Amino acid sequence: MSFRINPNISVDCVVFGFDFRQLKVLLVERIFQSDYSLKPIFTDHTLIGNHIYEHEDLEEAARRILKDLTGIENIYLEQFIALAHPERLKKERDQIWLQHIGHNPHNRVITVGYFGLLDINAMEIRAGSRKVSWFPVNKLPALAFDHHDMLNHAVECLKTRMRVSTIAYTLLPKKFSLSQLQTLFEVIYGTNLDKRNFRKKMIRMKYLIPLNEKQSNVSHKPAQLYMFSREVYEITNRDLFENII
Amino acid sequence: MSFRINPNISVDCVVFGFDFRQLKVLLVERIFQSDYSLKPIFTDHTLIGNHIYEHEDLEEAARRILKDLTGIENIYLEQFIALAHPERLKKERDQIWLQHIGHNPHNRVITVGYFGLLDINAMEIRAGSRKVSWFPVNKLPALAFDHHDMLNHAVECLKTRMRVSTIAYTLLPKKFSLSQLQTLFEVIYGTNLDKRNFRKKMIRMKYLIPLNEKQSNVSHKPAQLYMFSREVYEITNRDLFENII
DNA sequence: ACAAAAGTGTTTACAGTACACCCATGC
DNA sequence: GCATGGGTGTACTGTAAACACTTTTGT
Prior knowledge:
The first copy, chain A, is about 30% helix and about 30% strand. By secondary structure, chain A is α+β, with helices and mostly antiparallel strands. The interface of A and B includes residues 54, 82, 83 and 163 of A. Chain B binds a DNA duplex through helix 5.
């Protein structure tokens, strides 16, 4: 099996997390320092991406690259777009960077975007050679290449998918309160929801299982915890979130 | 400007039409005949696709290729997937074909799928060098490459999109009856809908404008015709189809 | 005792569902 | 005059939306 990289195809992962306050995204720091001095010439950020190997399929590559850069495995991943504009790598600093890391800056590269969802608290980011960290989606640093476009597409895709599937739960811990679930929707759709109506609607969903457990060490009335049961979801009528917002 | 083709990136258009009975898709005939005799060795079909040019963006290429093969312009097009499995062109007849048309059959090619929607009656297919024709989506001939996968993805994507946007109207003529609209939903979702309830729900939508016009030359009571107003849709509350099905 | 978030119920209006018959036209 | 699809109304049930106060815990 060859491990040659394909110079024309890359993947980028837009990995989202939710810290009960904000939607966050994982970014990799990109520091370009001249070969002669260590003074950085510029610093910005990229999504979690790289070129695929010749023997890999796209999602396989996305999972490998994510694991290599962050240690993260087995998360929800879904393809959402391919970008290939001829000028997408042609900004000056991107050209310098590509040259620096030994890529041909004139290569036409298509990139395929995957969005990933995970429970931000259960994941330890195991930093490798590059610094990877969480940024609030509405307070982003400068991004390389066309990664701002990529991210905007990912957010839109996340919004649509959350209305027609149960992926919302992959952003929460196994045990969560209804308020946390509500905040998740409020943050992603930028609205405020009525607490009583939200709870009424949610409690109807049979796959939302109340646990014999409450929050602890909170300085207010501790919340009832719930879990999502995929099993129950599969065998029941799959009520969804279409009318939540 | 260079017109070199990019050997690694292709696009495929899954163009849907609705003839008031079935969902149909445009396919291109692929006839391989030996260089020495004219007897065809195999015949099958492909989606409407080709490689992009080096200077083109993806959608631009999709529109060009669609126009070249069918004469069709200015239709609704939307990207829905990228496929790049290493073995996707490795079936024997595909390899033979690639060689035949002068492509390197060992090239890794990523293809980006666009689905297109149009009013089947308003479009004249201007056949070029290749034969292009409509096939019912649930009665397909053998397809080349991974085009069956592609098409399945496109159908799923169409179903999702039809629930959260107004693209359904791009499959209908400008003037249409409520029964035609209902049949469209029934065909795509494989259900039967109650006529009275469907009409009640639809007539609520302010962007569905009744015209001073009825069907003619039909051997039954002629139907009231309606049009879709994008303008009204944009300025009103954008009620949609989420609960139609 | 106070701060902080959890939790709860009722009313009203609108939308969903189920269901059967008459109507206008071409032939 | 008959075949074909167009067009209509009602009763019942269920969900959406608006809205304010009490409860439980930590400090």
